[in-house]
Amino acid sequence: MAQLDTLDRLSALDTNAVADALDLLGIKGAAYGLRPLWDCPNIAGRVSTVKFHLKTDAPSTATPATTALSETTTDGHILVISGGIDGVSCPDFVVDSAWKSKRIRGAVIDGLYQAVDKVHEAHCPAYGRGVATISDCSEMMQGDFGLPLNIRGIIVHQDDYVTADSSGTVFVPSNRIEEVLDVAERISHRRSLMAQAIQAGRPASDVMNDPEHQIISSDGRVAVPSNSNPKKSTPETHGLVSMLDNVDTAAVSDALDKLGICGQALGIMPLENYQKVTVGPAFTVRYVPAGQPAGSVGDFIDDVGEGEVVVIDNGGRTDCTVWGDIMTQYAGLRGIAGTVINGVCRDVNRAISDHYPLFTAGHWMRTGKDRVEVEAVSEPVAIGGVRVNPGDIVVADANGVVFIPRHRAREVAEVAQSIEQSEAGIREMIVDGATLAKAREVFKYHRLQRTE
User: Fold this and answer.
1) pLDDT at 451
2) Does the annotation list 326 as a binding residue?
3) Are residues 371 and 292 in the same domain?
4) Please, which of 101, 112, 347, 398 could form a disulfide with 324 given CB 3.0 to 4.6 Å?
5) Residue ranges in 73-176 assigned as alpha helix (H)
6) Which residues of this UniProt protein bind substrate (predicted)?
7) Domain range spanning residue 148?
């Protein structure tokens, strides 16, 4: 019964809270890069280790898979597999066999995996580094079951604990699970109370800077003023944003090319397939590695105006986040248009459920507290190879992010609108029966983005 209680407690927590608890306790357990291979449920369970190798000429002495699985997996276990490297997928028969026999809750694969459609159809939760196009048949051989593995620099043992969700994967040593759960549950409760305080209207900077026991009253209620954002958009800014409301990033990118402006942010992608375009002036923030003592990580949010886009330069770091659910919730309440990060975010489920636009270099669950701090606000930053000044216009959608120098925003908007009109004309001509070549010739398609 104790084991089931422990797994129930672990299942109730997200990886962000568990990773924060590991940080506080000085335990290494957050594994970067192991994410859902399909839109699968969150999982939490005990570890069953499996190791595969590339084939050699030596004969294999490994225990048969069926025997090893019976000995190392029971209900409540998750297969943790090391293998599937160098573009070759990890063998799928082990996952398939264990899942069909109902001995596992899912699989975490430190490598590539080919049979994604199979695990999806079987509703088997699977997390890994990616998908391979080369099967295991001729390259991989079975290794060992039940022995320690090195997973992304973390030593994982049989019967340790693992939890995985859309933010990533976290391992917890079995001999530390109770204290990790205790701390993680307090963190999760504290975050819930903080969210309630912010929802009620308390400034985020006040909430995040309060000592834990002073965040809100013991009954969970706070008497605070309205959360309305006092910083409103100026008529000039409103006019610039309005000009770009009806154009997407593809048209703006072509306009930037035509005008010889570098503004396309490389490697910064949307959290999901947004149907609307996010447009607004940039509120710039620059992070640097934390000093001693570490500085603040999020007080700037109270200074961001309604309709502005938070643009954060964290140097492209993927080992710690600078944006989570508290920031997402507060930004939404304040009417902030969206967030662009040269780095990673976490608590992605909150951003998705709130429909808050986030554009980043990725997502992971490990906190930036005591790792990074805010160095500058409202100063030039670098995002995806682009220099961004405060007040520059941000245009972001499902295709990515572009930045427009503020003093050239009207010019770019006019060119982008012209390009979109030309492309609309081409589409109309081909619907009416014209050849693509003829339609492109009429609207001078090949010259639309060229500098003249």
Assistant:
1) 67
2) yes
3) yes
4) 347
5) 93-100, 116-121
6) 324-327, 346
7) 2-181
313 is in an annotated binding site: no
Annotated binding residue 325: yes
The CA-based dihedral angle spanning residues 24, 25, 26, 27, taken in that order and rounded to the nearest 10 degrees = -120
Residue 347 is assigned to a ligand binding site:
yes
Which residues, in sequence order, are CB contacts of 192 under 8 Å at separation 6+?
none
Q: Which residues contact 73 (CB under 8 A, 6 or more apart)?
A: 48, 79, 98, 103, 104
* pLDDT at site 389: 97
For residue 30 the two structure tokens come to 């957050």
How far apart CA 442 and CA 428 sit, in angstroms, is: 12
Distance CA 231, CA 26 (A): 41
Q: Is 346 annotated as a binding residue?
A: yes
- Spatial contact of 369 and 19, defined as CB atoms under 8 Å apart: no
Q: Quote the DSSP letter at residue 392.
A: P
Q: Which CATH number goes with the domain that contains 163?
A: 3.50.30.40
pLDDT at residue number 71: 55
Which residue type is seen at 74?
T
Would you say residue 337 lies in a domain? Answer: yes
Q: Tokens 């995040």 appear where? A: 208
How far does Cα 240 stand from its chain's mean position? 30
pLDDT at 64: 46
Total number of domains in the chain: 2
* Residue 327, annotated as binding a ligand: yes
Which regions of the chain are under pLDDT 50?
1-2, 61-68, 136-137, 212-226
* CA dist., res. 338 & res. 344, Å (int): 14
Q: E-assigned strands of 248-391?
A: 269-270, 278-289, 309-321, 338-344, 358-360, 372-377, 381-383, 386-388
- The dihedrals phi and psi of 127, each to the nearest 5 degrees, come to -125, 145
